[in-house]
Amino acid sequence: MKDFNKEQYDKASHIISSKYRLHVYKELLEGPNTQKNISNSQIKQPHLSRGMRELEEQNIVEILVSEDVRKGKIFGLTEEGKKLEEIVKRLS
Question: Which partner from 23, 37, 59, 87 sits 20 to 30 angstroms from 74, CA to CA?
Fold first, then answer.
């Protein structure tokens, strides 16, 4: 296992401590996607929106389209988010 710093462990802990954030993270590991495509019948839209916003605030997820786009925004993992894959997979 690579050497990770405290901030990376903190971010990984933040991801796995919520099933909503973990779901978003795992979906975005597959590649960029829209919020609608990430949602499923077990996760209500408000919970998913909050989880995505929290991951964006932690610089784990980013919006890949211009700010002018209101519907169909495409989200992806930041470089920092991608670096957390090994930790998150091991702990979840």
Answer: 87
